[in-house]
Amino acid sequence: MQPSARLWRLPFALLGIAACQPAARGAAQQPMTDTDVTLERVYAAPHSGVSAAGRLVIRDATAWQATWRDVVGHLTPAPALPAVDFSRAMIVVAAMGERGTGGYEIRVTRAYRRDGDLVVVVVEVSPGAGCMLIQSITAPVEVVRLPRHDGPVTFLEEQERRDCL
Asked: Are 99 and 138 in contact, with CB atoms under 8 Å apart?
């Protein structure tokens, strides 16, 4: 197994564990409030070097460098690593994994704070009826920068089908 493949699997496993923690017992039920968080697209492409689907939260420069190499390492020349001040910001990567044709897209459409947690909305778009598709392996990815949040991050997954009729 390549080192980059291991880098992707461990954070996703840890995120899965953290996202599935039960709420504290006896906590008072209070109304949930949503506060939108500004997100900035750093990179998006239908072709990436990330063959596995997943969501990744990056809060340090070392993980960012390794992940960036995975995302754009297939390009020659590879784009320069975008600067991130991890004392104020963090990176979220949404990867769709390999697909057998074109027409797929992944987007981080919204992020908001809800009662101390950060919720990131990810939309996976698939081609629908009547679409003429390129016959090529694709691996859609989107990378966004958000204000730093050290608490839990939950991903809200949405599916969209785009018909071409």
From this structure: yes
Report pLDDT for 119.
Answer: 97
**At residue 143, what is the residue type?**
V
Task: Name 56's bridge partners.
Answer: 93
Tell me the C-alpha distance between 71 and 95, whole Å: 9
Q: What distance in Å separates the CA atoms of residue 18 and residue 113, rounded to the nearest whole number?
A: 16
Q: What sign has the CA pseudo-torsion 138, 134, 82, 107?
A: negative
* Parallel, antiparallel or unpaired: strands 89-95 and 141-147: antiparallel
Task: Supply the angle between the helices 3-19 and 61-72 in degrees, to the nearest 10.
Answer: 120
pTM to 2 decimal places: 0.80
The CA angle 121-44-48, to the nearest 5 degrees, is 110
**What is the DSSP code string of 48-111?**
-S--S-EEEEE-SHHHHHHHHHHHHTTSSSPPPPPP--TTTEEEEEEE---BSSS--EEEEEEE
According to DSSP, the β-strands at 34-36 and 105-114 are antiparallel
The three-state secondary structure class of 16 is helix
> 116: pLDDT confidence band, cut at 50, 70 and 90?
confident
Residue at 74: amino acid letter: H
CA distance 44 to 144: 9
